[in-house]
Design goal:
Elements (H helix, E strand, L loop, with lengths): L9 H17 L15 E4 L12 H13 L4 E3 L7 H15 L2 H4 L3 E6 L8 H15 L6 E4 L8 H15 L5 E4 L3 H9 L6 E5 L11 H8 L2 E5 L28 H13 L2 H18 L3 H10 L4 E7 L8 H6 L7 H11 L5 H4 L11
Parallel strand pairs: 1-2, 1-8, 2-3, 3-4, 4-5, 5-6, 6-7, 7-8
Keywords: Cell projection, Cilium, Flagellum
Protein name: Flagellar radial spoke protein 5
Organism: Heracleum sosnowskyi
Length: about 375
């Protein structure tokens, strides 16, 4: 079933999307921890609202969020430092409350991140910080709070997580999670009996570091991975197939922060020539199944150990990929597909050795 833009009323559009949403819910996180069951397998990432991807018009952005929700893609991931992301969600969720059926509202989720400076984590400081996000997002309780910490030499992250757990007990946060923590610190957190449900980490066909250490611990302890960078800011797409970025102005411009970031990952992994071999392989798999390269890239990561959901960035009001995203749920990669992809990836360098564990790219001197 393909959802197309139309002049139909929002209620009718939502009913048309119900079949797809039922399918998405079937793929939701059916895992050990029931607190994660409400999060869709594919999440709408809102880093792109923070600047660098083009001017975001507030009204257009909210309309775009409504289109994603109407198509059954109702989980939005943001952060306190993603520009107006939390404010946009607050406007959006109020539009849903007023203009959409109650059944749709029940399937909307707003996940945010808290990235504090490494100062003393008092109960008041943590509470006040979380209250800012609750106010901006206009919710009584945050669906998920994903916590980031910059400096591991400062053990204040344990204090912060204990205060966040207290807020969960008070009903101000529904689930406490992590973002960009490494395996060693995740184990310490779990040993301190802090009930985190997931860790959001960078994970793609090129960057398989989470499968080398993190996934084993997650599998053992019932923690899940939510992944970002899965389509590498758009590098894993037809747009960059058969291009040569080694020649100035010969290929598409790397004109967004995400494209520039993930091009550095390609360089560390094996360079543009090997990346082209990977794109050609993915294109063959995509053509075989009648889908796009990004769809194959996301499906491949969703099939990895401990992965509960993958992020696809949304350029709200500027570009949409609803159909590509919904195609992920029906795609099944067979053994031939997986083997052909792995034949290429095994030629790449070990990013765990070069960069370090999950999140270490943000903490290197």
């Amino acid at each position: 079933m393909i959802i197309k833009a139309s002049r139909q009323t929002p209620g009718v559009q939502w009913l048309l999307a119900s079949t797809i949403h039922s399918q998405i819910l079937a793929y939701s996180l059916l895992i050990q921890n029931p607190e994660l069951r409400f999060v869709d397998k594919v999440l709408n990432g809102m880093w792109q609202t923070s600047g660098g991807w083009g001017r975001i018009d507030r009204d257009d952005a909210v309309e775009s969020m409504l289109k994603y929700a109407d198509a059954g893609l109702g989980t939005f991931d943001m952060a306190d430092h993603y520009g107006p992301a939390e404010d946009l969600y607050g406007i959006f969720i109020n539009r849903v409350r007023r203009e959409r059926p109650p059944e749709l509202l029940e399937n909307i989720r707003g996940l945010t991140k808290w990235v504090p400076p490494p100062v003393k984590m008092t109960s008041k400081f943590v509470r006040d910080s979380i209250d800012v996000s609750r106010k901006r997002m206009d919710v009584a309780s945050l669906d998920m709070l994903q916590f980031h910490w910059w400096d591991y030499s400062n053990s204040g992250y344990l204090d912060a997580l204990k205060h966040l757990t207290d807020l969960k007990e008070e009903g101000k946060i529904k689930t406490v999670a992590l973002t960009n923590f490494d395996t060693e610190r995740l184990q310490i957190i779990l040993e301190n009996e802090i009930p985190v449900v997931s860790n959001q980490v960078q994970h793609s066909i090129v960057d398989m570091r989470p499968q080398q250490k993190m996934a084993e611990l997650c599998q053992l302890m019932g923690v899940k991975l939510i992944t970002y960078g899965t389509v590498m800011g758009g590098l894993l797409s037809e747009k960059f197939l058969d291009t040569n970025l080694n020649i100035p102005f010969a290929g598409p411009p790397l004109n967004t922060p995400s494209l520039q970031k993930y091009k550095r990952m390609v360089d560390a992994w094996g360079g543009w020539s090997l990346f082209q071999v990977l794109l050609q392989t993915l294109n063959k798999v995509a053509s075989k199944h009648g889908v796009s390269i990004p769809t194959v890239a996301v499906r491949y990561i969703l099939d990895q150990q401990a992965v509960a959901g993958s992020m696809i960035g949304v350029r709200l009001g500027l570009a949409e990929h609803v159909n590509d995203t919904n195609a992920v749920f029906s795609l099944v990669l067979d053994e031939e597909d997986v083997n052909s992809i792995q034949e290429v990836t095994k030629k790449g360098k070990d990013l765990l050795r070069i960069i370090g564990d999950c999140g270490d790219e943000y903490r290197r001197a």
